[in-house]
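Lab notebook, page 48
Experiment: co-folding of the full assembly
Goal: obtain a model of how the components sit together before planning crosslinking
Operator: M.T.
Materials (sequences as entered):
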Amino acid sequence: MLDFIIRRVIAIVPVLTVVAVFIFLMLRLTPGDPAAVIAGDNATSDQIDDIRRKLGLDEPIWTQFAIWITDILQGKFGESFFFKKTVAELIAQRIEPTLALATCTLIFAVCVSVPIGVLAAYKQGSMFDRAVMAFAVLGFSVPGFVIGYCLIYVFAIELGWLPVQGYTRIGVDFWKFLERMVLPSLTLSVGFVALISRITRASVLEVLNEDYIRTARAKGLSNRVVLMKHALRNAAVPILTVIGIGIAVLMGGAVVTESVFGLPGLGRLTVEAVLSRDFPTIQTVILMFSVVYVVINLIIDISYTIFDPRIRY
Amino acid sequence: MKAMRRTLAALAAGAIMTAASAPVLAQGKTLRVVQNGNLTILDPIWTTAYVTRNHGYLIYDTLFASDANYAIQPQMVDKYEVSADKKLWTFTLRDGLEWHDGQPVTSEDCIASLARWGKRDAMGQKLMEFVAEMKAVNAKTFQLVLKEPYGLVLDSLGKPSSNVPFMMPKRVAETDAFKQIDSQIGSGPFIYQNAQSKPGERHVYLKNPKYKPRGEPASGLAGGKVVKVDRVEIVEMPDTLQQANALIAGELDIVEAPPHDLLPMLKKERAIALEDWNPLGHVFIIRFNHTVKPFDDPRVRLAALHAINQEDYLKATIGDPAYYKVCGAAFICGTPNGTENGSDILLKSNFEKSRELLKEAGYDGTPVVLMQSTTLPVLTNTAPVTKALLERGGFKVDMQAMDWQTLVSRRTRREAPQAGGWNIFHTFSVSADALNPISNAYFVAAGDKSWFGWPNDPEMEKLRDTYAKETDPAKAKALAEQVQMRALETGQFGWIGQWYGPGARRSNITGWLKAPVPVFWNIEKN
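Observation: model returned without errors.
Model output:
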């Protein structure tokens, strides 16, 4: 197991190298000049050239890459072109809302989708099963921002139960924090619930047809024990896999959800950085997302051994 | 490794501080405002971005300011004198002016501020061409010594929009003009709260208790800046529909510029009122690249101007005639320099004339590259109108869609359109930036030193110089008209319609001043 973990950690290095080269080149090849954006609409070409020189953007692309990669290896993520803050400071400021949104969404999605997926499999062909499948199709098909706007209209504008937008930090007021997390988490979790519930249903259905389930029933075990102990545990590996994949979907969804609900998180920071061509910020945030994604998938891989003792690394 | 540790420590400490630090809760009356864009740069001399200019008006003060009738009035200045030969200007500051750190505002501060602004702003640069020396007479009095008379001294010092000559402490104003300042200390009516402000979330300003407003009533950007709320929060919300929702739900007090398609929805809300805070509005521009074919030929530029007409643009972009005005005045209808003489070419399409001019110029049918911005909603529809009208006028048009940031980068490129350059793009300007031939950057025709498109017309530059030196307002107005006529004769660029974007406020908000810039003094929250 330790060998496996070490191998996987080492494998992160080439992955991040590829990501770093790709994102650097992609940003430099994409049209758009941060100096022109910084200078504003009334700036002249000379003013833009001056700003470009100050930012080091007049250096050859390989020199810029060498400087950046050397800095990254020394743990220096650079300074945002726009915010006059280091990228590390910016990320520290923006990480809480994104972590909170991801955690609330993940907890809500798993708590809802796994039970309804198991129940749908158990009651295959019933109205409940059809309703879950219809919801899954709908959850996949309706864009997150539409769901967000509908929830806002009903719960914030019409009923006035919840705030329209904004974020309260968890350390400031926990209940206000929860109040402001409800709608964004619901919005972001709809697609996630659809994905997990559908996979849960399919996996559990497959397991329910296995001989050992028939044997368990023949032994007189209750449906609850059969479902939760025998069926769900054996169906867990594909469910865990899809949760891992879903984290990436969640990161993408956070960009839209944070924009709709005015959450000052990393998703919005990414959008702002991309729109303003804030190269140091985009590069660092994407590298960070890549690390998070690789690490989460490593954790998921390790967790397979808990649910399926046959899996050994 | 040490740097890595430091970075990780900064990340951890920042996250903990951010999570744990309880911001000072709003006390008294807090005005929550959403502006038209995110405030990322806090140096109003370093960038011309309007959100940064608005931030400047909150925390800084100006020597002069333009009132509701666009007349320049003293602001930080108590009195000023000009010598008989109009070459020596003496300014005396008001009593009791203080920076936010308690230090007095001095002549040296003002001289350093003007010097930095004069390196960045087009109108400032022009003023500095005429300035032989700026010298402090004493702590409260300083002088501008001019090489020759200059007609726009007060207009320059009271310039209402970007870059505004804001006064900063000398130690701040001595920052390299091409480097952002580190300090947010001003002498204006609000004090920026660095610790409570989080870029991307909100910027916080508290009322400056030591600010001494002028005695006159507030008028435009001039007069007494009396602050009637305790705190202003500039909330950053990128989604315009959410801005409207939050305003309706009472989570915001003011949305500076809701898009026109949301105005009918806001109008229906009883708790919301629309406010035409900027009566001058904005003006759309069509800009040609004078350095590459075919618009290097004035006949082709004129052909394009003959093909277009203002009303089509305004209908397609703004829609509701209540929010637009067909106006042939380059220097804005209803302002001292505003005249519509000679502007028929912009008001009515003449496709026959356009085709005739193209034939005369020998236009070979090579498609002209028209850059379309698709991310600024108000600009998105301008390019399709241009394409349709120019094609009817005999042009072939290759309209290329891109985001605004790509457009502003590409417009700096001077290559041929096939090699990544361009022929035409659209932009818009706050009308306050366009009130005279010096502040209106689109009129500069000095080749490489001109704004994008790089027109080169010595005759235009001569006219602008003459205008700048003219100190008689009546003669200056006549010269401004000549500048306008010259631009239309050479097809330098086109001003293709004025439009207005009202702000939206909760009905308990009163006292929003009419000015070219959204300002938050004088506003009451009842």
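Interpretation: Residues 441 and 451 of chain B are 6 Å apart (CA to CA).
Next step: discuss with group before ordering constructs.
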